[in-house]
Design goal:
CATH superfamily: Ethanolamine ammonia-lyase light chain (EutC)
Radius of gyration: 20 Å
CATH architecture: 3-Layer(aba) Sandwich
Structural class: alpha/beta
Number of helices: 8
CATH class: Alpha Beta
Number of domains: 1
Strand content: 15-25%
Number of strands: 8
Strand order of the largest sheet: 1-3-2-4-5-6
Oligomer: single chain
Largest sheet: 6 strands, mixed
Distance between the termini: 55 Å
Order of helices and strands: HHHEHHEHEHEEEHEE
Shape: globular
CATH topology: Rossmann fold
Length: about 240
């Protein structure tokens, strides 16, 4: 195989920056401009405003719009701890369950990802769990993954699925993640969660693939009473205590 064909094979298999070439001691102009464009898209994704208004209409369900304790975007980026906490004034907006599942949509580090994929993922997950009772969908401004824990705990949900905009990369400014936590409560560790990442068709996981994985993990979590490192791809991987 010629070197040129080998280069094309590399570039066809990955969106990563491979074999960009060079011009003198720098990049070729086209590669340099593409880098600048992708970097700008990533920065825009981080600073984009979350607009959950169309979520209720898109999923045809009640949506409760909530806030974290981070009052604005600059504070959110400087103080991750505030993004993990629900604003105390919003606790009263949450009804009491019990529910099998709470779905919490959070802007995270890419509101663009949430705008593009959250409604479709929410519908797909609900469709794959037809016998589960679903709490009112919650949408959170300036939130991190852990903000789903106090919300789901207040709702009385056994399991929470947080759909959140992931940290943008230079090839993926709109990637959505789904984080599952059994028995959500304040203080849960990241090791007690399962994550389905890179939901962004057509370049990442499709809604069908991602929601099927989420549903499989959800059913396994209910059966085993746990999520996290003890539950891998729907199979309990740790011996019982």
């Amino acid at each position: 195989m010629s070197d040129r064909n080998l280069i094309h094979r590399f570039t066809d298999l990955t969106p990563a920056r491979v074999r960009l070439g060079r011009f003198g001691s720098g990049l070729p102009t086209k590669a340099h401009l593409k880098f600048q464009l992708d970097h700008a898209r990533a920065r825009d994704a981080v600073s984009a405003s979350f607009k959950p208004d169309g979520l209720a209409k898109a999923i045809e369900r009640e949506v409760l719009v909530l806030r974290s304790r981070a009052p604005d975007r600059p504070t959110y980026l400087r103080r991750p701890d505030l993004g993990r906490q629900l604003h105390p004034d919003d606790l009263e907006l949450l009804p009491s369950g019990p529910f099998d599942l709470a779905i919490v949509v959070v802007d995270g580090l890419s509101a663009l990802a949430v705008h593009a994929h959250a409604a479709s993922m929410t519908r797909a997950v609900i469709e794959r769990l037809p016998d589960w009772t679903i709490a009112p969908i919650c949408a959170v401004h300036q939130g991190r993954v852990a903000v789903g824990d106090p919300i789901a705990s207040r709702l009385g949900a056994s399991l929470v699925c947080v759909l959140i905009g992931e940290r943008p990369g230079l090839s993926a400014p709109d990637s959505l993640g789904a984080y599952l936590t059994w028995g959500p409560s304040v203080g849960r560790l990241d090791s007690e969660r399962n994550c389905v990442s890179n939901i962004r068709p057509p370049d990442g996981l499709s809604y069908e693939e991602a929601s099927e994985t989420v549903a499989r993990l959800a059913r396994a979590a209910r059966s085993a009473g746990l999520t996290g490192v003890g539950l891998k791809d729907g199979v309990v991987s740790l011996p019982p205590a």
